[in-house]
Amino acid sequence: MEGTSSRWRGVLPAVLLAALFVYAAWPWLPFARAERNPPTIVFYGFSILADAFHDGIFPAFQKVWAAEGGGRVEFASSFGGSGTVTNQIVMGVPAQVALLSLESDADRLADAGVIPRDSWKRLPNAGVLNLTPFVILVRPGNPLGIRGFEDLGKPGVRVVHPDPMTSGGANWAVVAEYGSGFRGSPGGPAAGVAVLAGVWKNVVAQAASARAARTQFENGFGDALVTYEQDALFDKSRGRLRADVAYPPRTILSEHTLIVVDRNIRPRERALVDRFVRFLWSEEAQKVFVRFGFRSVRPELDAANPGFGSIADPFRIADFGGWKRARREIVEGVWKDRVMKATPNR
Description:
45% of the residues lie in helices and 18% in strands. It has 346 residues and is an alpha/beta fold.
């Protein structure tokens, strides 16, 4: 009995020392960090989304998730040109959810085997989450009298434009410019080509994304910028817009596609990611988009933003056969193969 007691007296200091070590080291142990850190959703999006998601959507969902008993949730996000974001996802960034400017970028991800073909079409509204038309920013007072895309081809007008090779917004803009001529009077393909060629002979600066092109314009480049309505309205609502907005009588209403990258979602994260995706089409989230200058997929909510301008002839990508056909026939066939090859210094 006395020997056993002696052995315990010898072991006890070591046990206490080990316990003290575990207590001190606990916050840095991997399993302890896993318990302490909240789950994180990795979100990628095209350039003009950053404010709406950082200041609106993410905080709103965090409140919803907590109220439903899910506790804390964090977001890791990255924003850039839609083409750039798509390339990053193909190369293996850990995006779980992404909002792309173009459905054709979702097709590229499917072509690369990143997501199943047409998987986004099984989401609400066939994956289209929000919308915004293409407009023209002009210098205060509109000194050159620019009203539509046709005016951008006038002599002496200097146009700033995002780059269609990297920017989803630039692709929408190309179809908007072509469509403006196509749907005008007398209209047709020849008129579409003429308007597009007129715009691009006057392009003096390009940028990788719509937001980067906006920065160029703000820094004094050019007389006009072709961009999303949302990008202008959000700054206008905060008194930061140092330009006027010209609404072309004929322009496209861009539609933005959400995709889910299943291979980057672990089983224990599935319920959280699925709940976030469902939330994005909820009335609460759609009202956030409207507040930040995006038009909702639920048109009855748009009245909450009095800044939305009137467009006489808004058209959609479906009017040109969808993005696969429009990319082949307009972006590649007209802009790249005809207009750019015929435009000096391009």
